DNA sequence: CCGCTAGATGGCAGTGCATGCCATCTTGAC
DNA sequence: GTCAAGATGGCATGCACTGCCATCTAGCGG
């Protein structure tokens, strides 16, 4: 591992705070639980909480394994095939969340409910998607793509296909695989008749 | 007019507060100006400011002519032709903002800079788009459209085409008409080859 | 084993956003 | 003129978040 002891302790503490916070949220509701209460329950000071996550919503938007996440994205990214990239990443995260052999390092689905149902968290996630959009748009433009086309395509896949599929998957009770929704969403944009709603 | 005296006074006061606020923002910056300062400069109490706009960012997301806005949307809305709907609304707002004969009731472009450049405002606008997405998705579903297809299509047009076009238009210095960007954005989604970035 | 340096943490005070409550004032109907 | 309803202001409060400084700990060299 390329992480020092301090870095590993930090990540462990962050995961502990996240799990403690979600337990409190499940019991009392997101808005009713204060950052001070989360920090106290997790055994850290509020000041440290803010140093870790920046904001209360940062619990859901901070990439707690930034190194891994960056590697995964860089590894799967294909700017000429955005739907394929999205599907591969969703597939990777999904298998990682349901491990068959090793221990799950991190279960990213425990907080999805708050991402979709809590307005403040949802808002923060939009900002995170916004940041990612900007980076991907810049990357796509560096390959020679038209600025407007690049911007619209990236944003449509992230805010439209990805977030839309995630929400519909959640609303439907998480029965069918998320990947099915992502594929159907990609088909909406790539379909020969365009994304007009008249073909439902 | 269908508005009572109280309603007209309220709208006039809101417009006055908005203009006062933007003047202060232009001079000192958005974050450096407090709600208390805006309220004092506009001659109202902070409590009234919050009753009008809900939040500081509500200055940019509150529809100050809700009745007119709703009429416009309902009038132009065609669920079978989302790109056409978007283009007609953009065209309407643009002509309203550059009046040739009568006086401009409202200039919606004075605050666009903050919508795109100020993170807190941008975030709030995302939530406003999110609300609109939900309403349009519900309307589209009521026509028999597939849930996932409806959700992805609406969100792609609002977050991808509309917001993306607005941002690129702003980044390019607002030289070409916004409508051009919207049309190009719509073409990205409706194009025969799909929204992949390889055709730039 | 002992200090030293740098980074991490905690405590504290302060600011600003936002809301609830109640008193006061204005509007508009009778 | 009277009265109810609505709009406004002032006050108190809670919570998110930040800057500042003191303290503690990890990790390294002697």
Measure the end-to-end span of chain A: 50 Å
CATH topology of the largest domain in chain A: Tetracycline Repressor, domain 2
Q: Helical proportion of chain A?
A: 55-70%
Largest sheet properties of chain A: none
Secondary-structure element pattern of chain A, one letter each: HHHHHHHHHH
Number of E strands of chain A: 0
Largest interface, counted by CB within 8 Å of the partner chain's CB: A-B, 53 and 53 residues
Task: Explain what this protein looks like in three dimensions.
The structure is a homodimer of 200-residue chains. Chain A has 200 residues and is mainly α. Chain A folds into 2 domains: 5-56, Arc Repressor Mutant, subunit A; 66-191, Orthogonal Bundle (Tetracycline Repressor, domain 2), CATH 1.10.357. The first copy, chain A, has 10 helices and no strands. In chain A, α1 (5-28) crosses α2 and α9 packs antiparallel against α10. Chain A is globular. At the A-B interface, α8, α9 and α10 of A face α8, α9 and α10 of B. Chain B binds a DNA duplex (30 and 30 nucleotides) through residues 4-6, 10, 34-36, 44-48, 50-51, 54-56.
């Amino acid at each position: 591992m390329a992480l020092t002891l301090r870095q590993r302790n930090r990540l462990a503490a962050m995961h502990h705070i996240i799990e403690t916070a979600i337990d409190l949220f499940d019991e009392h509701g997101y808005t009713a639980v204060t950052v001070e209460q989360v920090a106290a329950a997790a055994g850290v000071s509020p000041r440290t909480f803010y140093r870790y996550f920046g904001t209360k919503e940062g619990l859901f938007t901070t990439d707690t394994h930034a190194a891994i996440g960056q590697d995964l994205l860089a590894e799967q990214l294909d700017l000429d095939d955005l739907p394929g990239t999205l599907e591969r990443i969703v597939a990777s995260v999904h298998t990682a969340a349901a491990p068959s052999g090793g221990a799950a390092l991190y279960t990213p689905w425990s907080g999805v409910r708050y991402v979709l149902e809590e307005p403040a968290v949802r808002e923060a996630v939009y900002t995170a998607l916004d940041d990612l959009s900007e980076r991907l748009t810049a990357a796509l433009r560096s390959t020679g793509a038209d600025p407007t086309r690049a911007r619209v395509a990236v944003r449509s896949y992230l805010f439209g296909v990805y977030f839309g599929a995630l929400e519909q998957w959640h609303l439907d009770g998480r029965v069918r695989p998320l990947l099915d929704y992502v594929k159907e969403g990609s088909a909406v944009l790539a379909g020969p008749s365009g994304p007009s709603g008249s073909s439902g």
